[in-house]
From TrEMBL:
<dbReference type="Pfam" id="PF05685">
    <property type="entry name" value="Uma2"/>
</dbReference>
<dbReference type="InterPro" id="IPR008538">
    <property type="entry name" value="Uma2"/>
</dbReference>
<dbReference type="InterPro" id="IPR012296">
    <property type="entry name" value="Nuclease_put_TT1808"/>
</dbReference>
<dbReference type="InterPro" id="IPR011335">
    <property type="entry name" value="Restrct_endonuc-II-like"/>
</dbReference>
<protein>
    <recommendedName>
        <fullName>Putative restriction endonuclease domain-containing protein</fullName>
    </recommendedName>
</protein>
<feature type="domain" description="Putative restriction endonuclease">
    <location>
        <begin position="13"/>
        <end position="167"/>
    </location>
</feature>
Amino acid sequence: MSIAMTRHLFTVQEYARIREAGILTEDDRVELLDGEIYVMSPIGPLHVSIINKLNKILMNQVGDNGIISIQNPIQLSDYSEPQPDITILSPREDFYTSALPTPDDVLLIIEIADSSIDYDRDEKLPRYARAQISEVWIVDVHKSVIEQYTQPLQGEYTQLHKVLLGNIVTATTIANVCIDTTQIFLFAP
């Protein structure tokens, strides 16, 4: 006789209580996707470097037209609270003090994929599409390519534009965001 095993899916509120109770700490690299807690890849120097470069570029380009949020959670649904590497949020006077940003607040998500390309494409990207996030970039560090996903429809992105090294990627969702890939992929010795 076999016994059917069930899994407990956590809500965003239960997940918050787990953190508040100290079971998960600020140092734990985890995120909630469809009720399940996922352990994220460790962050190495290359990952950090690209985030720092993009942060500097984006702060200059976005200015007061958005809020640059680095590795902070967004609430996609009652069961999903991912932590994108970079999110550009709609400006708000309270800087999201009263609640986490939701899909309606997101202008652009950028994921840096040095060891997490499959996870970013297969796990996170479909959830962003289902939540109707208008634009997501996956920065493929090893291939020096930015994958620009736009036009979510029925849970998937209908447009994929690959921007190779030496070319420029321009955001479709926020004015003035235009990045030359050499600025992020070429490293000083």
